[in-house]
Amino acid sequence: MLPSLSSRRDWPRLSRLSLKLFAIILVTNVLISGLVFVFVSRSLDEGFVNYLERSQSTRAETLANALGEQWTQRGSWQWLRDNPRAWQSLVRSQLWSSDRHPPTGIDRQLSDARGYVLLDELSNPVIGEPLLKPPPQDLDLDIPPPPEPHFVPIRSGDKLVGQLGYLPPERLMARMDQIFLERQQRNLTIIVGALFLTSLLLAGGLAWWLGRRARFMTLATRRLTLGDYSVRLSERGRDELSSLSADFNQLAETLEANRRARQRWVADIAHELRTPLAVLRGEIEAMQDGVRPLSPDNLGSLQQEVDQLGHLVEDLRLLAQSDAGALDMHLVPVDLEESLVQRLEDSELRLESHGLTLRLDTAPVWVRADSQRLRQLWDNLLSNTIAYTDGPGTLQVTLRRRHDKAEVIWEDTPPGVPADELPRLTERLYRVEGSRSRRSGGSGLGLSIARALIEAQGGVLTPSASPLGGLRWTLAFPLDLPAESSAEPSPPAGEPASSSGSHTNR
Predict the structure, then answer these.
(1) What is the pTM of this model?
(2) What is the pLDDT of residues 134-164, one digit of tens each?
(3) Whole-angstrom Cα distance, residue 384 to residue 388?
């Protein structure tokens, strides 16, 4: 669900981020467009001049060869001096591709007979003398003189019989820049202008889109800080913003779940404390009213309730330390088999008194653990098994090394736990039955403490259904590799991996 926009100031608008993005994109595109315009214009100018130079040089050489052949036939240039029209006919026949279709545009300018000058062998002008005279210039302006014509030698055999001159590109550009360059630059200006407008639209659209999403995220974050954990962001798309929205939604769900858990936790603690306090209050009032005598038996009953309160407070303190990462642990190499077998054998009479038979199958495995915390872990699992396993029944415990883990399988006989309830067994104060009544009178924190203890030692506690009909717990501890490398054999090949499990509040 998207955050609601309850006021005009909450509506999406261009934020500072949007304006910065808009300015950056626009300025970048303007600079790129300007550089493209400058470099392309310069390239057009230089490329056009180079084209003119090559084209004029080719035409001049063609015309010079034809003039050399004419001189060989006639023996002098007098025929051109006597008949200027013959010069135009010669240029047209050599430089025009067809008499019927004269060239147009730039080719027409380059094929114009007036753009060439012919000198005899003594460098005297024959045709085109005006090209040798530079145009008049304003004496008050500091303008460089125009470039001189370029000349190509004219030969008849091995004899130099004259020179053919033609205007360099700089002189032609004075007449042709309006024909070609300005037209190309105008087209380039249109292209750059269109690019600028497109950049403007794209920058504005992208800035608005990003600003809108950033605004929604800002509003959602503001509502989240005010305690509204129901807010959600749209996760459409596969970009980084969509991933950020998904992470935000996950954060909101986690905070909402933590708030519900905290509320339930406080309510459960209040309930657990209320029962022994109510019993204490009732018995004390009965003694004050003389209904019950002040006897050692009645005081012993009060002592039991006080002890239960003390155990509950101690369990809560241990869980609080676990949540804060301050649980006191002294991890040293420990023989897990010795710790487990010793505690179970010490509790065998207690198990038998509740109609439970103990079956052990263990092997030496060394781990890094805290001996006192291991004993507390076994006690919690034992208490849970005794409280929730019907007699006659069986407790079967197996200890094996599997790969790089020490695996303890703790399983018992019915009653079992529904599969959908298994993941919640280690939740604090959770019981499978719906009511708060309990057969054992326990605090409902034993399995939560067991999970905290094993996780503090680097292990994992996992519940599952037992083939015996009850519940299976799988406890996986990291091995103490230096000790294991010389003492522990590898598990037999083909040994089936057991599912994880042990006991919880049932």
Answers:
(1) 0.46
(2) 655 554 445 556 667 788 898 888 888 888 8
(3) 6
